[in-house]
Here is the input.
Amino acid sequence: MYKYDAIIIGGGISGLSAAVELSALGSKVLLLEQHQHCGGRTHSFFDTATGSTVDNGQHLMMGCYHATRRFLRLIGTDDLALLQPALRIDFLHPSQNANHLLCARFPAPLHLLGGLLGFTAIPFKDRLKMLMVAKELINTSPEKELELDRLTVEEWLTKLGQSEISRKYLWDVITIGALNNCPQDVSALMLFRVLCAAFLGNRKNASLLVPHVGLSELFVDPAVQFIKAHGSEVRTGIGVESMIFEGTYVQSIRTSEGKELQAKSFISAIPWYSFEEILSVSHQNSKPGDDKKNVISDCHLKADFKSSSIISIHLWLDREVTDLDFAALLETRIQWLFNKSKLLNERKEITAARQYLSLVISGAEEFINLNKKQLVEIAMEDLRRVLPQARGAKVIHSLAIKEKRATFIPSPGLEALRPNARTKFENLFLAGDWTATGYPATIEGAVISGRRAAELIG
Here is the structure.
């Protein structure tokens, strides 16, 4: 008789998703997280200098994130992230007036057509050509998806006759925001699926889902409370060093504390590079005849998965420089601006600070080795270019957070190599946004993966 029905390795969103699902079904779960907090790349912390809640990274979510919204309802925080009535994204440009993409409240896909035709940052003749992309979304097939996965986003958009300005001012913004990489490096299939999810079906699928609390308050702390309230356990500060196999089963795991823990089933909800390290140690300690090599070869980890980085620059300024909730920036190094003072309704700011902004650079390899001072200078230079009110502003306090392994790069051809939740071992399952979720590295993909792994056990 096992003490635990399942042991989950990793307390990020995928691990929390799996643990919540299993706990809700009455399973006894032990979730292990090597850091002192859960959430992985999706958490927040308290900045003592300002009294502000700071997210370790900014996540764009949409109405089409149905698994995420269900997860929030399950843990009781769905009212803490508000869905736009209709998609609206403001765009800031150094030499143009502010523009916005607004999808009118028409039934899908008419809302997309209206939004594209009304996006005046792009010349009208180029807006008409953008409808070719909208037309492409209507029909799909396995054969079409295979073809798209052979193409980069750049190749696909060129094939559809998209002008340089429409790519730069819209499609590249969506690609980098959704896939965390440049259009010349990522699979057209991934962008195609994101666009289909957002713009087909209910028109609110395209609306942005905007958190009004920190990520830990939205996702992490309530999930941990839910798991514990349903009789399961969450332990932080404990990593897993190896697995002990017996035939086609995982018999137990060995923790960083030197303990050996057993369960009926196991879920690995950690990044591919961490999973590979555990398998490597497990293989070194294995007995002849054990079948670890099949797990490694089937996952194609080392050869096929590459990481991409995100940098978040947090600025507390001595004056208010914008009243927008958030905006995409064009012709700048900074790609997104989030008005955290407004979104979080900040009250505990240091005396001299009037506004708290979070600025994002995705696919940030070019900037990842810069120090905090250099990153803040870049952020302020770009802000002053797009916001006249920022030209006299002074930085009262700042933070720069680098996630060097923020996401995997969804390169052409990678989709066929992403592993399913099942492994060669009958009681070992995989979760994580890098597994075969059908999505790029997103919160939605992480939630889906955890739920799928839980369903295979439950």
Q: What stands out?
A: Residues 66 and 284 are 41 Å apart (CA to CA). The chain has a mean pLDDT of 92. The chain has three domains: 6-47+214-303+412-457, 85-206, 307-408. The two ends are 17 Å apart (CA to CA).
